[in-house]
Write a structure and sequence with these properties.
alpha+beta, 5-stranded antiparallel beta sheet, 4-stranded antiparallel beta sheet, 5 helices, disordered N terminus
Length: 330
Amino acid sequence: MACVPSESKAGARPPGPHPQPAGSTRGNVVCLKWRGNEACPTRKRVAELLFQMGIRACDIFALIHPYGTREFDVSFARPEGLELFWSGYELAKDQPDWQGFFVQAITRQNEVKKVTVLTRNKSLSCVDILTWVSRYGDVQGLPSKNLDEFGIWSGAWMFQIKLKHSRGLVSHIPSSAFFGRDRIMVFYRGQPKLCYRCGSPSHFSASCQVQRCALCGGEDHLAASCGQIRCNLCGELGHPFSRCPRSVANVARARAEASREAPTAEASAGEGDRAVGLMKRKDGPSQQRRRERRQMERGQVEPRPGVMPVPSQENVSPRAETLGDNEVNE
């Protein structure tokens, strides 16, 4: 019979996961059903398989194997344990030790996460961060600054994100990323601790043996032998973050260049309008004089002061008529 540690003080509780009150329901549960042709694994063997995923004993609230059944109910102490299991199972499900198991999700993974993105560069644009996190889910609502009890910004942004699914499982956001030389850190409830290089839950990047290119993100080669580059912001190949057309800096630069080109075109159009106006004003007085001369000949208007009246046609010589025409035109 298992030994139960006694309480050292009145009202004290032993360390580790505590039993739930009667009538309460426990979340973070997954059921492992053995369907292989071999004998059903023991409870100890199932625990060892969980440990190989990077799950610790303190992460498991209960591992129940009802007598005479081929099922194992695994209840995790926190949502992070459940997320860690699914991430590890995605990598280990094709291995021989797991091929005989059918995994049934009793507790559904929480898709909407309150994500905290911590930056060390206060000038890093929130719009760029929003573009990056949108690759992993649908952002709901507007981001907000994380303020401390004094109302001072901590440098972190808060997002509500509904995570995407990949092959029936929730796709998690990486715990860190680079925008050029600026690094960001990502935290949220239920975030599994995975290797930054290969995504394995059994080790971290410091001890990872996988070769991953820092330029394109591919495996089995390093940046020195790579001819491609992948943008950290939009995730597309062909350009770095500094030249991404979706970054705030490049969008603002493109708008500034367009605004500088627009006045030049307007000025050219304005110069043409002014030239046409000058031509109209140059021809205008001559046309007006000819119009007044015709009206005076017909007797429709009186001569303006300083303008020689038009003599009658009865006593005008050809020379006088020519002289009068010249004076009017002048």
